[in-house]
Write a structure and sequence with these properties.
33% helix, globular, 7 helices, three-stranded antiparallel sheet, alpha/beta, single chain, three-stranded parallel sheet
């Protein structure tokens, strides 16, 4: 849940004993993760998709100097800041599978037998940033509208009622 801080989450859990989050916390471990403020999509999503702070995963800001390529670039759209064509840095050699120096959340969960499925707006599904975040995701499900998301999420849950699964929706 975007912008829900760890302390606010703990307060919400203290106020309502019936939240499903209690069962999840009891079955596993609930720990805070650190990102940036003010938030930027690419930095925060990299934190959420790795469980690591920006200093560890390396996406520190909207624009970064990529020393290996010798270019200042957007790490949201993966274009050089002087030429704006989405995902152009793929032509420069950016490899989504190795861009982040840490394992993805889906890779970590998969090693524990937990599958990850992700609903992502169709326009973003194949972007470099989505490919970086979705390393190890079992199924990436593109959607166009809110109806697609909720119908699709219900279908996935009904088709896999006993699976250990992380189901994410990026709206």
């Amino acid at each position: 849940i975007d912008a829900l801080g760890y302390l606010q989450l703990c307060e919400a859990m203290d106020a309502c004993a019936d939240l499903v989050l209690h069962r999840l916390a009891e079955a596993g471990t609930l720990v805070p993760i650190t990102s940036t403020f003010p938030s930027t999509t690419n930095t925060v999503l990299s934190t959420l998709w790795t469980g690591r702070c920006p200093a560890e995963h390396g996406v520190l800001a909207y624009e970064l100097y990529l020393r290996e390529l010798g270019v200042a670039a957007s790490t949201l759209f993966f274009w050089p800041i002087h030429h704006r064509r989405r995902d152009e840095l793929a032509e420069w050699g950016v490899e989504p599978k190795t861009f982040l120096p840490v394992p993805s959340l889906a890779e970590q969960l998969s090693a524990q037998g937990i599958l990850t499925r992700a609903f992502i707006r169709k326009a973003y599904t194949d972007s470099i940033l989505s490919q970086i975040h979705n390393r190890g995701v079992r199924e990436v499900i593109p959607f166009v509208s809110a109806g697609d998301v909720w119908t699709g999420a219900r279908r996935i849950i009904e088709e896999h009622p006993l699976d250990k699964m992380l189901l994410t929706v990026y709206w």
